[in-house]
Design brief:
With 202 residues, the chain is α+β, with helices and mostly antiparallel strands. It has one domain. Helix content is 31%, strand content 31%. The protein has six helices and eight strands, in the order E-E-H-H-H-H-E-E-E-E-E-H-H-E. Strands 3, 4, 5, 6, 7 and 8 form a six-stranded antiparallel β-sheet that branches. Strand 6 and strand 7 form a beta hairpin.
């Protein structure tokens, strides 16, 4: 078992290695889809509460989806390509949210044998990532640059489901993370957030 600790405001979580492997594999799948040019995959698996927040910020869900589609098309037009992606084991896990269990087919809350609506908890995992992107030179035909970015993906899953969604679309700030999940600690170190960086690969 691995123990991920948080500040006094967040719950300390003991995580079975299989849960960590599940989160890592889900983020790796996200990366593989980006390598194939399927940026819509991340949009379709955006964490619903985060998606609603971004939609409210830009005016509507339709406007958000149009902006995301335009960003994906811009990558295609610029001939940007994700050439490599690696998801590492999560650096931290937190209990972050309780909600009604919803039947994914009917959209109706699930009840137990006594007729009470089942309440489920959610994991939040911080998954470090390494991404390499090939960027064509705007002036020299045939010349490309390769950039390597060290970053992370926030993955969220209902406990027991191993179905992960992501805070994609734009990277949330710590303030935005804590606005979504007030129990989270306040600092990067306590959150287990890896330092983000980028460099050109010669």
């Amino acid at each position: 078992m691995c123990m991920c600790t948080a500040s006094i405001h967040a719950q300390k979580v003991a995580v079975d290695p299989a849960i960590g492997a599940s989160a890592q594999a889900a983020v790796q799948k996200l990366g593989f889809e980006m390598m194939k040019g399927n940026f819509k995959y991340g949009q379709e698996r955006m964490y619903p509460r985060w998606k609603r927040r971004l939609a409210k910020r830009v005016g509507s869900l339709e406007k958000l989806e149009a902006q995301l589609a335009a960003a994906s098309q811009q990558r295609v037009d610029m001939r940007l390509a994700v050439t490599a992606f690696r998801a590492a084991p999560p650096t931290a896990f937190f209990n972050v949210w309780k909600s009604k269990k919803i039947n994914p087919v009917t959209g109706v809350p699930v009840e137990d044998a006594l007729g009470k609506v089942i309440i489920v908890e959610h994991w939040l995992a911080v998954v470090p990532t390494t991404t390499r992107v090939r960027v064509p030179d705007a002036k020299l035909v045939g010349k490309n640059y390769v950039l390597e970015e060290q970053s992370y993906t926030i993955a969220i899953s209902e406990k027991g489901s191993n179905i992960w969604s992501f805070l994609t679309g734009m990277k949330p700030t710590i303030q935005e993370l804590r606005s979504l999940f007030p129990s989270l600690p306040r600092g990067e170190k306590e959150l287990g957030l890896p330092k983000s960086s980028a460099r050109e690969i010669k």
